């Protein structure tokens, strides 16, 4: 006798077959779309880099514009470039986890809330790579709700800011997410990282109620915790723990001995 369409066996067989068909479709789509996703991620990264350098215009050929940008890997401990790592394939986040390429941070040294940090980083140079017009640095640190990742662009003097942007964060729209509001971002242009360009400790910070100094930026209103996160990550990445030693190469007025002393201190603490 033929089984009724409502029999448990038939229902389970149809449900199982449907699951198999759906999982095959989803896995095939995931595998087939992966190269496209990677291409889009790459395009997004390049768009963000051009955008923070004020070089992006809607509708432009991003790949062509990016040919003006030279990526280089920097050893942040010495401030020197290294050719041993390929900037096209170097992965900061993986390097931070690698005991040979990163280090653990704790206590007062971990102001950006990263726990571990890589010793190498890819920077992007705009114009002549030997004497760049702009240096674009990757930055990251904890906001209120999670890790914020972005870029800061600095003029070739290693001190004057061009802009800042975040390509990944989980801050609240209208509050912490205002970090990507063009009106808030506009105030960064021309601000200085270091007071009088003479110290290795970055002075740039967000402040509540009126930024009236060249190293001050108006904090985000109603988002003090995100603002503190931005200040902390800049204080970290622009100090000798991050790009401080590298940036000092561009700042002729910085006393070389001061840079070396900071490096020695860093090595002693590590
Ligand atoms: C639902 C919700 C989302 C919030 N999102 C943020 C945020 O993204 N960034 C932030 O700094 N504060 C956020 N806050 C506010 C903080 O809890 C805190 O009140 C604020 O940072 C204080 O900033 P103020 O001193 O400028 O008012 C949020 C609060 C609520 C209730």
Describe this structure in words.
This protein has 270 residues and is of the alpha+beta class. The protein folds into two domains: 1-60, no CATH class; 68-269, no CATH class. It has helices at residues 8-52, 62-66, 92-97, 182-186, 224-237, 244-248, 256-269; strands at residues 69-75, 80-82, 102-104, 116-118, 120-126, 134-142, 147-155, 161-168, 205-207, 216-218. A six-stranded antiparallel sheet has the order 2-1-5-6-7-8. It has a two-stranded antiparallel sheet with strand order 3-4. The chain has a two-stranded parallel sheet with strand order 9-10. Strand 6 (134-142) and strand 7 form a beta hairpin. The chain is elongated and about 90 Å long. The model has no long low-confidence stretch (mean pLDDT 90). Flavin mononucleotide (FMN) is lined by residues 144, 171-172, 175-176, 221-226.
Short description:
By secondary structure, the protein is of the alpha+beta class.
| Succession of helices and strands | HHEEHEEEEEEHEEHHH
Q: Using DSSP, what is the number of strands?
A: 10
User: Strand-residue fraction?
Assistant: 15-25%
Q: Please give the share of residues in helix.
A: 25-40%
Shape: elongated
Structural class: alpha+beta
Distance from N terminus to C terminus (CA atoms, Å) equals 79 Å
Q: How many structural domains? A: 2
**Main beta-sheet annotation:** 6 strands, antiparallel
Bound molecules: flavin mononucleotide
| Low-pLDDT segments | none
Average pLDDT metric = 90
Spatial strand arrangement across the major sheet = 2-1-5-6-7-8
What value does the Rg take, in angstroms?
23 Å
């Amino acid at each position: 006798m033929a089984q009724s369409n409502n029999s448990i066996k038939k229902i389970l067989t149809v449900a199982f077959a449907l699951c198999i068909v759906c999982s095959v479709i989803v896995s095939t789509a995931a595998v087939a779309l992966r190269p496209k996703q990677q291409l889009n991620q790459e395009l997004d990264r390049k768009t963000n880099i051009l955008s923070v350098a004020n070089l992006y215009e809607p509708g432009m050929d991003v790949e062509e514009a990016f040919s003006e940008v030279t990526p280089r890997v920097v050893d942040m401990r010495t401030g020197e470039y290294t050719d041993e790592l390929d900037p096209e394939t170097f992965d900061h986040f993986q390097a931070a986890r690698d005991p040979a390429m990163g280090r653990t941070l704790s206590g007062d040294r971990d102001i950006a809330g990263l726990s571990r940090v890589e010793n190498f980083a890819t920077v992007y140079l705009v114009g002549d790579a030997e004497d760049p017009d702009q240096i674009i640095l990757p930055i990251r640190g904890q906001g209120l709700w999670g890790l914020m990742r972005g870029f800061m662009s600095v003029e070739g003097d290693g001190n004057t800011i061009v802009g800042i942007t975040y390509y990944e964060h989980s801050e609240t729209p209208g509050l912490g997410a205002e970090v990507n509001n063009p009106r808030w971002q506009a105030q960064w242009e021309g601000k200085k990282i270091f007071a009088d360009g003479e110290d290795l400790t970055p002075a740039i910070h967000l402040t509540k109620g009126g930024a009236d100094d060249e190293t001050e930026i108006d904090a985000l209103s109603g988002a003090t915790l995100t603002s503190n996160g931005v200040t902390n990550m800049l204080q970290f990445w622009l100090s000798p723990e991050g790009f401080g030693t590298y940036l000092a190469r561009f700042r002729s007025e910085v006393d070389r001995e001061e840079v070396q002393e900071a490096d020695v201190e860093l090595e002693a603490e590590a």
